[in-house]
Each structure stands twice: as C-alpha cells, then as structure tokens.
Amino acid sequence: MNDRRRVMVVEDDPNVAEVVQRYLERDGFCVEIVGDGLVALERALADLPDLLVLDLMLPGLDGLEVCRRLRAVAPVPVIMLTAKGAETDRIVGLDLGADDYMAKPFSPRELASRVNAVLRRASTPLPSSATQTVLSARDIDVDVPARLARVRGEPIALTAREFDLLVHLMRHPQRAFRREELLEAVWGWTYGDTSTVTVHVRRLREKIEKDPAVPQHLTTVWGVGYRFES
Q1: What are the pLDDT digits (tens) for 20-41?
Q2: In the chain, at which end, N or C, are there fewer CB atoms within 10 A of the end residue's CB?
Q3: How far is CA 77 from CA 2, 57, 223, in A?
Q4: What is this structure's pTM?
C-alpha cells in the first residue's frame, strides 16, 4: 500500500510542471500533473489529493474557480502560483481559502519547502495543555482536539489555517499581536507577506462576528495588529 502523500500540480507549462514534479518527488511525494483546470477539479473531487499546487492561469477553468469549487466541498490545502506582482489575484486566492501562494518565477526548492510546511501544519495537532483543550469566549466555543468551532451553538466551517489562527488568539486573550508575530506563530514563517494574515482575519471575522464590520471579538489595534477580546 502506497502511503506517500499525494500532491496534484495543476500547471499548463510542461517545463515548470516537470521541474516541480522532480523536486517534490525528491522529497518523497507522489505527484500527479494536470494541465487543465476543469480536468484537475474533476480528478481532485473524485480522489482528493493531500495538497494542490495550483496555477491561476489555466485552460478549461482558471485556478481561482478551481479553488472556489474545491473549497466548497473539502478543505484540501492549496498553494497558488501567481504572476509576479499580481496582488489582486493573490488576495482573491487567499480570500477563497488558499493556504499559501508563490509568485512566478519561483524557486522549485522553495516551493517544495512550502508544500512540506503547509502539510506539516495541517497534520500536526496544535500544542495544548490540560486546561486549554476547550476554549470559550462568550458565544464562541472551540474543541481543540476535535478541531471543532461553534458560534452561538452552531458549528462553523473553518479552514485549517483559520482554525489555528482562532485558537492561537483565543489562547492569548487581550494580547495585541503584530501581523509578523501571527505569521510566525500560525504559519510558521519567519518572513513573508503580512497581507496573508489580514485576509485570514477578515475571513475569520465573517464567520465568528455578528457584524464583521464592527467586530467584538477579533479587534484591530491600530498601528500594531490584532487582539482577541474574550
């Protein structure tokens, strides 16, 4: 039985796809290359991979739509490949739930490192103590081992990264975090684009706040970052 983790690389440039495949297979992954967005979506839904490396510019169906439709069904980790400087695409991709992104041209070695990091984060249980396996704050309840969050008694669908961000903030109520601190604590990056944090905070507010425009839990600390109010 093959227990290697499966990565689907959705990229219509065969040269890029071949290099990425070589680096990922060197790290022990089982890699499937698909050059068409619609075909990739059909194959992913038929047999979910452990992670998708997803180019945005694709024939058949663009990467954003592939991510949107896949995210509606399953929380498969996604790393998006965007054109250099395509900030709008990057933000939209993160908004749809992508876990990470890389701008072309990119280092295949760095991409392999990111794939490992995203999968490690998705599969590693959050550190917990005997008193922090269940977290509560007014109308929010989180069962950490079960990775289950409820708002006003109703379960909410969170991506792995949104869940980790919520737990980290709830474990440190009233503390103001800089975006860079959250990037390192939740994403495991010592450097990177802090807009990733901004987008995930916005997505989280939409799911936990009664009025995301006037957040009562996840508040902005101007000039610093964010704070969780219990």
Answers
A1: 999 999 999 999 999 999 999 9
A2: N
A3: 20, 19, 31
A4: 0.65
